[in-house]
Structure formats: C-alpha cells, structure tokens
Design brief:
The chain is mainly alpha-helical. The chain has a single domain, classed as PgpA-like (YutG-like, Orthogonal Bundle). Helices cover 55% and strands 4% of the residues. It has helices at 23-36, 41-52, 61-71, 75-92, 100-106, 113-120, 126-138, 143-148, 160-184; strands at residues 2-5, 12-15. The protein has a two-stranded antiparallel sheet with strand order 1-2. The chain starts with a strand and ends in a 23-residue tail after the last helix. It binds magnesium ion (MG). Magnesium ion (MG) binds at residues 107, 114, 158, 161-162. Magnesium ion binds at residues 107, 114, 158, 161-162.
C-alpha cells in the first residue's frame, strides 16, 4: 500500500501497487460528497420508505437506510456521484469553460448528461431500478424536489438531484427484490432485522 500526499491540500491518498485507489477511500469520498452538498442518507432513505412502504408490511426506516448504504458501496454509484458532484461544485465556483458553465448553471432542459450519468448507475439493480428512476425523475419526491428548486441562490444541483434519484431508485429496487424472497419464505420485513437486508454482505469476499 502506498500513501501519497497531495502537496496543495495535504490530503493523504491510499493506493495499492497498481496505483488503484482503495475502495474505502472511494466510499468515504462518496459519503463526504453527499454530506458536503447537504444530503443525508436519511433524506434518501425517506424517499425509499415512501415508495416501498405500501408494498411492504413491517418496513422501517432502518431497512431503507441500510439499503441506501449498500447502494453507496457500489463503485458504479460512487463514480457517478463523484463525477456529478464535482461538476456541480466546479460550476458553483464558475470554473467550467463556456458554454458548458452556462449550460450547467442554467440546468438546461436539453442537457440530459446529468440524467444519463445517474441512469447509468442504476443498471446494476435491474429493470425495477430503471423504471423507478424514471418515476423519480418525473415526480420529484422529498429532497429531490428541494434540490431541484434551489436555483438562483448560488447553489447548483444540476447533477445532484438526478444522483439522489438514482441512489433512491436502486435502494428501492433492492428492497423490492427482497420482498419477493420474503414472500416465498412466508415472511415480511417485520421478521427481518435491518442489517440482514444486505445480501451483498453475505457474499464471500465482500464486506
Ligand atoms: Mg438534473
């Protein structure tokens, strides 16, 4: 393991011998990016809860938070969040080149790259995640709506609203798949402790 220190910021970065960034570093950076932009895991979990509770007896917020956390461990999602948040932040600092700066600032309807990056990250979770993302893109629920309606106060969330919708769609899809497993076992979420909603953690080699 190599530790490189960035001269300008003094930040330490961990790499392995092939100069690949360690997973823990990417996970941490992803969570920090959301936090920096004022989005908590609970904000996203609330959207998941609202969408899934009608279909899931015994579903609790803890299950939804656990599901959001699992989604945030996926590189596919982490990379999308890092790219999107970086672009929002650069645009806020007026650091993009024109005309991209103006396009991102204005959140132009025809831009679509924000939706495309966010959509790309949902494919891991299958067709339910894709259709749920479409639903959230259209009917902005909770924090997504707040992020979408903050223009003109120096905040640029052109990418962030779509990324939050993407995480929520994936987390909801995970739960929907789990619902079927529970039904087949004659159980509901009432029988399932939140920490057991993460099948990824039960796979050999995964943490
Ligand atoms: Mg957007």
């Amino acid at each position: 393991m190599l530790i490189l220190i960035q001269e300008e910021t003094g930040l330490e970065f961990m790499y392995n011998e092939k100069l690949r960034v360690h997973s823990n570093v990417v996970t941490e950076a992803t969570k920090n990016a959301l936090k920096r932009r004022g989005v908590t895991l609970e904000d996203i979990a609330k959207i998941v809860y609202e969408m899934q509770v009608p279909y899931n007896k015994g579903l609790r917020m803890d299950h939804c938070v656990e599901s959001v956390e699992s989604v945030l461990k996926k590189r596919e999602m982490q990379h999308a969040i890092l790219v999107g948040v970086e672009l929002d932040e650069l645009a806020e600092k007026n650091m993009l080149s024109e005309p991209l700066q103006q396009i991102v600032l204005a959140d132009e309807g025809l831009f679509g790259v924000d939706e495309t990056i966010a959509l790309g990250a949902v494919f891991t979770y299958g067709s339910i995640a894709v259709t749920t993302f479409g639903h959230l893109d259209k009917n902005k629920i909770g924090i997504i709506n707040e992020l979408d309606t903050q223009p003109g106060i120096g905040k640029i969330n052109t990418f962030l609203d779509d990324l939050v919708a993407s995480v929520a769609a994936c987390a909801a899809s995970r739960l929907a798949h789990r619902t079927r497993d529970l039904e087949e076992a004659g159980e509901t979420f009432e029988d399932l402790p939140p920490e057991e909603t993460a099948p990824e953690t039960k796979i050999d080699g995964a943490k």
